[in-house]
Structure formats: structure tokens, C-alpha cells
Amino acid sequence: MWQKIIKDKKIIGGLTLLILVAAVPLTLNLASRQQNLQQRAATPTSCSINNPIDAMLIIDKSGSMGPPVNPDDRITPAKAAAKNFVNILYSNGKDQSSNKKSQAGVVSFAQLTNSTEGKTTLDSPLTLLSAQSNVTSVNAKIDTIKIFGRTCIQCGVRLANEEIKTNGRAGVKKIVVLLTDGGANAYDGHLTADGATAEKAANDEVDKGHTDNGTTFFTIGLGKDVNVKFLQSIASRTGGKYYFAPTAADLDLIYQQISTIVGKGSISGTVYNDANASKTKNTNEAGLPGWKVSLINGTTQAAVGTTTTDDQGNYTFPGICDDSYQVKLTIQPTWTLTIPTNPDYLSPSIANGNVLTNQNFGVKQEAQRSSLTCSPSTMTLTESGQQITATLKDGSDNPLSGKVITWKREGSITQITPTTGTTSNAGIVTTTALIPPNETTVFLSGKITATFAGDNTSASSTCDVITEYTPNETTITFTIFMHGIGNSGDSTNTIQSSLSNKNPVHPQRNLKVTIFDSENTFVSETEIGEGLIYNATDGNFKAVVGLGSPFATGNYLVRVHSDYHLQRQFPGIVRLTAGQNNTPPAITLVAGDVDNGNQLDIRDYNAIIDCYSDFEPPISCDADKKITTDLNDDDAVNQFDYNLFLRDLAVQNGE
């Protein structure tokens, strides 16, 4: 922006304010400077508007506007900019009929008792800019303004409102341009006042002028000492615009920019938190800053401009051509629109450069998705028990208290106690988990899940705790498929698993692991009872097996065996690293080794025939024998087991 190339000057002293109210037809021609100005306009416009305006300039003549209080002379360039503005209004209406010409008036304000110079004055009433002599008269009054006293913004606005009410024309747009270099510190009847009180008095006067006369306020903040929020609020809620002038030298260009849009329309409103979804903005429902609002031509659907709501949730599109429009709000995550709906945008129309305010959007925050965090997320369980903590928070990372959490266990964990709990003020709930007695290895497939079912403020969420191997121990995580179970096929068709049993009766199996070095020399053998755990999600079995210590990093041959299956050796060399968990590829075991002889033969076949019971009772089968011959572990020895054995005969010997 152009402000970035202006050198800052030091700001000293109090406040000076200029307000202009004018009625002007806009046919401005300022050659190259005007072209440059239009390129920087906040809202792109290309229409030719000739709407007259009644305009009042209010000029702050408090001590901060120049010597002797402030060595930085601000009042001189301020008066020059104001006079140029009047000249532009006259130029715009010069060739128009009287009812198409603008009026301009001037108020200067200050507050100091016992001094004529320190009073707010109507320096020039609203004057029709129909002749050069009238322009000269108004500008001569501007030249007489002298600085003195304190800053009474309310005084200046009140006097401008009175002049507009008395001499403003019916059906003509009313404009105020307000310039200040500081904060309000006085109001009628009070020589001194704190900023908040003085600003409230000024705001009340602005609202009165907007309500009674339909006046639109444009505000200019000069220097670093202005209260930006105060000036933004005045402009945005009345359909005007706020401008920042780093130095007094910038004022002329700002007034020229204002002159290009005062005769055009404006659309303004507020994006607010409609917490009760009433579709009406209540006094306790705050505006929302930082929301993107877009203006679209209602006929062509072409984008006209975008803006972002200010600190108070207000937005303004000034300088709008006569036309129909759509105003759309970009909805932020976790929020929904309460008004407008069906359609979900506003459809204002500008005619004769009118000002539309209260074009509001109401939004309501959706139920925030909660987050449930388990601690620890992975752990080693012991027979004495391990405490687990779950922390529940809302979408803004605030603890949710008084919510019921349900705990569930899977795998090798014996029990959890308690199985439900209510979160504390910190959003925390705990339980204790145990593993089966006398187990020495902790299995990866053990899992504890905490669940929050959600309510009208938070969506449901879960967290899992996965048990893992003992730290610093050399372990291997095995993933094993077994023919006829889960997602495993058989020796004839290794891929097709549609006939495999997805719910084995015995989800926990034994596993023996034998390790040889690369020269096929025996290193170790480890067997775990019921440590091989079925994973229903993946349709396979998993186990973590500790190899003990010492164990050296190196290349090994690894063989695995589980009851009633042929022993298998992992293809090629398996690289094992000491002191950490190792994860070789998944391996598949062949079913049918009923007598654990590591080969499929007639004895295994005869045992299956003895227990076969598809049509008649088995020939010779007790409970233990039934377990060994129930190859797909569905609690029945039938055609599925028989056919599985025949298909697996393609591999008769273990490795």
C-alpha cells in the first residue's frame, strides 16, 4: 500500500480531528494522481456515479495539531486537504443542475473553558457548491481555524449532526469525514475525561446522527496515537470506511480517495456469534474478527471484492456501484451459518448510491470434536498391574469433566479395573490392567481401548494402548498366517480365503522359535505357551518373542512351529539386531500335522477320519483328539477339515 513508502514523523501532544459532511455528484477528473488512487481503492469500481451529497468536514483544532504544543505542523496540511476536498466536490457538480450539486460545511472542535478559541464552532454552514464564490467562502472559513485546547470529538459530531438536520436536503446522501490524531479526552460539559468515557459520548453522538439523519461516517486516523478500534467502529457500523494517515502529508491523497466513493453506495454488517441460534444479534453476542466476506455481482456473478472482519466483527464494502449484489461469508471449520439460510447469502441492491448497514451474518459453533489421549500409548504390563490414564479434551484443548469413559480389553490382558470411570476437572480418568499370571513375555497384540460416546457438545472419540516388549531385550515380532483360519488360504490356493474360519475357537496358540546361525549351528530355542494371539482385523496371529541375553547382532536362520502345523523356516537369512525388536516378513504355516511329527502322513489322515462327524457320530474321537484334528478350529471335524488336509498334502514335510 502507498502508506508503506511514507516516512513516519514523531507524534507529539494531543489530538486534532477533522470532520467533513458533504453532498457531491462525482465526475472527478484528477489525471494521473486520480488514476493512481483508483488502483489502490479497496473495492474496484468502474461505474460513473453522479449522486449529490451533503457533506460536513469536522476539523480537530486541539493542541496536538501543531505549534506551540506540537512542533509538527499538522493543521496546515489538514486545512489544505480539506479545501481541496471542497474543490473536488465543486468540480464534480460544476456542469450539473442545482439538485445535482453537493453541499459542504465545516465544523472545528476543541474544548477549553474561558477561551473563545478553545470552543467547538460551526465555521461554515452547509453551503451549496453552485459557484466559485461559494467554494471560496467555505475555504476561507477553513483558513481561519486555529488550534487550541483539548479533544472533544463528541462536540464536533454533535454540531455536525445539528447542521445536517437543519440544512441537509431530503433525499440527498449525508456524509461525515472525521480526522483525528489522537484519542478523545473531553465531551460536552467536561473539560477532562478518561478515554473510555469520552469515546462513549462520541459513539452515542455518531449513532444518533446515523439513526436520525442516515449519516455515513468516514474516519481518518493521523499518526501513531489514534485509537484505531474506536475509529474503525464508527466507520464500519455506519457504512463508511476508516483510513490511516502516517503523516499529515498523506491527508490530501486520502481525501481524494474518499471523494471517489462518497457518492457511491456501501454495504456493511457484522459477523457475530449467534450462540443461541436466534437469528437476531443480541447485545451479548460478540462480533467475530478475521472472517472473510465476499461481494459478488448478482447479475454477472463476477467477483467485486473481498474483505475481512475487523476486531469487532464488522465489515464494509464502500464505493459500490448501483446494481444488485450477493454477499457471501466463508464459513470457518467447526462453525455453521444460522442466518441467512436458504439461500446462504445476502442479496442487497444499491440504488442512487444508498448506504446499506446491518447486513449481518450469524454463525454458531458446532459441537466440538473431543480428543481422548491414553498415557502411556505403549507399555510393558506386569502381574502387579499397570495404571493407564486417559485425558479427554474438547476441540479447543480444554478439559472435559464429568464425562463417562468406558474401558475395553483385547488379547493377553487378563482384566482391567474399573471398566468405566468419570473424568475429573482436569478431564482425567484411570484404570489398571493386568496380564495372565506367570507369563514372562508381553505381547504386541494386547490392547486396551478407552471410549467416550460423546454428547451434545462433543463428538465420540477413542484411544488405544498397545502392549509391547520389555525395553532393551532382543525380541522378534512374528506375524503368522495358519491355513484354514482367518485370511489364509491353503497349499493348493494360497490366496483364496473365503472358506477359512474367521472366528477360531482357540485364538491363542503356542509358538516355538528355533534360531541357527548362518552356518546352521544351533543358537537358541524359545517356546511361549498361548502367546501367539489371533488378530481378527488382519486375519492372522501375532506374537512378540524374547530371545534372552546375551544375544549378538548377526545373520540367522529362523524356524517357527505351532502345534498341529508343519515347522517353517523363514526364507533366506534373517538379520537380527540385539537390544531391539525385530520384525521379519509374515510367514504361513501348513495345517494337518495332527501328531506333531513334522510331516503329513497316513497317521494324520487316520486321526481325521476317526473324528470325522459330518453325517454320523465319529468312529473314535475324544475331546483332545478332536482339538488336534479340527484343522480350521471351528469346533467341528467335517468336510472342511478333510478337504483342507487333502489340499495341504501338496506340502508333506516340515522344514
Question: Could you explain how this protein is built, in words?
Answer:
The chain has 655 residues and is an alpha+beta fold. 18% of the residues lie in helices and 31% in strands. It contains ten helices and 36 strands. Helix 2 (75-93) runs parallel beside helix 7 (251-259) and helix 4 (153-167) runs parallel beside helix 5. The radius of gyration is 42 Å and the shape is elongated.
Summarize the SSE layout with pairings:
Layout: E1 17-22, H1 31-39, E2 53-60, H2 75-93, E3 103-109, E4 121-128, H3 132-143, H4 153-167, E5 173-180, H5 195-213, E6 216-222, H6 228-238, E7 242-245, H7 251-259, E8 265-273, E9 292-297, E10 303-308, E11 314-320, E12 323-329, E13 335-339, E14 349-350, E15 355-356, E16 361-365, E17 368-369, E18 371-375, E19 378-379, E20 386-393, E21 404-410, E22 415-417, E23 420-422, E24 428-434, E25 447-452, E26 458-459, E27 461-467, E28 475-482, E29 508-517, E30 522-535, E31 540-546, E32 554-561, E33 568-569, E34 574-576, E35 581-582, E36 587-589, H8 602-611, H9 623-629, H10 639-648
Parallel strand pairs: 2-3, 5-6, 6-7, 8-15, 8-16, 17-26, 19-27, 28-35, 28-36
Antiparallel strand pairs: 1-2, 1-3, 1-5, 3-4, 8-11, 9-10, 9-12, 12-14, 13-16, 18-20, 20-24, 21-23, 21-25, 22-24, 25-27, 28-31, 29-30, 29-32, 30-31, 32-33, 32-34
